[in-house]
Amino acid sequence: MIALDNNSLIAAFQINSPPAVVIHREAIRRFIIDRGQGLFMVPSVVLAEYLFKFDTPERQQEFNELLSKHVAVPAFDSLAAEICADLGRRFTAGRPFSSAAKSIGSDRHVLKADLQIMQRPSSRATRPFMRSQSSPG
Predict the structure, then answer these.
(1) Which candidate, 137, 110, 117, places its Cα nearest to that of 6?
(2) How far apart are the C-alpha atoms of 12 and 108, rounded to whole Å?
(3) How far apart are the C-alpha atoms of 126 and 2, rounded to whole Å?
(4) What pTM value is reported for the model?
(5) Which one of 7, 39, 57, 122 has the lowest number of neighbouring Cβ atoms within 10 Å?
(6) Residue 15: CA atoms inside 13 Å, Cβ hemisphere, count?
(7) So what's the pLDDT on residue 99?
């Protein structure tokens, strides 16, 4: 299984993507749609972040229908919370979250969100397809 992050969703589905991403939209979208069944997953935390940008229920419903045909969205459950906490403890190695985040040029809020995103691939034998610049590790 390949875990998609927000950048992958933006590249494949967002109408007004950044110019550097637009040139790859069709190739990424076709890849996801043509090979999607059972191959891709989007962590629920990533999906929530992406859906936050949708301005109408109709757009969100259209996206949900497309996504449900091609991509799995595993829940952020208690196992996910445990894995996320363990990843955080190991990454921070006793340092405060803010210090650990600064060491990678980030802040504690971004680090916590990235850890929530990373826990699902860690628990499901997946690999990143596209990775956020701020992802730890």
Answers:
(1) 117
(2) 28
(3) 5
(4) 0.59
(5) 57
(6) 6
(7) 92
